[in-house]
Amino acid sequence: MSNILCYENSLVDVLVDGEPLRVNYIRCSPLARLKTKGTVVLLHDFFRTSYQFRHVLDLFAMGGYITISPDLPGKHVGSQQRTNDAMEVATVAESLNGMLEKIGVRQPVHLVGCGFGASIASIFATRYPKLVASVVRGTGSSKAGMQNMLSLSSSLTKQERLQAFTQYLRLKDRKTFDLSDQGIEEYAEAHVDPTMLLSMQKLCRDLGRDDSTLAPTTEKLAQAPVPNLALETLPEEEPEHVALSVLSFVNRHVSQAKSNVSADPSSSRKQATKESRL
Questions:
Q1: What is the CATH number of the domain that holds 56?
Q2: Which of 53, 127, 141, 175 could form a disulfide with 214 if both were Cys (CB 3.0 to 4.6 A apart)?
Q3: DSSP state letters, 115-158
Q4: Quick check: is 216 in a domain?
Q5: Beta strand 109-114 pairing with 38-43
Q6: What per-residue confidence (pLDDT) applies to 64?
Q7: Which residue range forms the structural domain that includes residue 256?
């Protein structure tokens, strides 16, 4: 990562249904001399962590956007896991809302999700449409990957679960995503905690009812009138292409939004009043 940008790796505590939940996130900010265009939130795939976006954080920030990549609940050694039940899809979306509010992100954000993250982005846009400027959806986890997750037993020892998941990553994902040993270790360690495993299995079953690939359906996003873009390429495969595609899309939307405000004086006044209150 570039040393000319501002990086922050932090934990934030949020309340979800009245219960505390800790979320780890990375924030990369543009240079102070650059005018910030907005905020891009990167949501990782089912079998990933924020590490998935390691190659594009700089690119989005250098494009003028504050870039935030959270570890979705349960995906980080410093994160807290709910103790009374397994994680639900709605809980993940609510935790994202709590995180953005807690760290002071008040303007609508551009959501970029892969697979599971794309589903969460769609659900979040449906629940909180006023908080979302646009959604970019990338492909991700497969049905085979879901079955692999469901087959792991929480009764196995940590070493047995670690070995099983590492083998899956080495066989399936090393060639596809050019994973290094560090990457495989990063992802495997995030999936071997028994409580986390149960939560991931529940999420796997919930999302699998609608779509076996964990990709969001068009119908879900249709409920939220926000601009959206579908990408076939993942950030591990072609980070420059992904970054340029997303930046082109969000820049175009930002320009259109500004044009619409400029064309409507009443909207300009309303926006100025809203921003003065933030």
A1: 3.40.50.1820
A2: 141
A3: THHHHHHHHHHHH-GGGEEEEEEE----HHHHHHHHH--TTS-H
A4: yes
A5: parallel
A6: 92
A7: 6-140+212-264
Between CA 36 and CA 241, with CA 112 as vertex, the angle to 5 degrees is 85
- Kind of pairing between the strands at 19-29 and 6-16: antiparallel
Contacts of 89 (CB under 8 A, 6+ apart): 119, 120, 123, 203, 206, 207
Nearest alpha-carbon partner for 55 in 250, 228, 244: 244
How far apart (Å, rounded) are the C-alpha atoms in residues 218 and 183?
Answer: 31
Q: How many domains does the chain have?
A: 1
| Cβ-based burial of 266 (10 A; exposed 0-12, middle 13-18, buried ≥19) | exposed
* 199 in a structural domain: no
Q: Is the pTM of this model over 0.85?
A: no
141 pLDDT higher than 70? no
Tell me: the pLDDT tens digits for 161-211? Answer: 777 777 766 665 544 555 666 767 766 776 666 666 676 677 777 766 655
Q: 185 lies in a domain? A: no
Interatomic CA distance for residues 79 and 85, integer angstroms: 16
Residue type, 179: L
Query: In which order are the strands placed within the sheet that holds 6-16?
Result: 6-16, 19-29, 65-70, 38-43, 109-114, 132-138, 228-231
Helix, strand or coil for residue 40?
strand
Q: Is residue 99 situated within a structural domain?
A: yes
* β-pairing verdict for 132-138 and 228-231: parallel
Nearest to 183 by CA among 166, 201, 164: 166
Q: What is the DSSP string of 105-118?
A: --S-EEEEEETHHH
Assigned token pair, 191: 């999936």
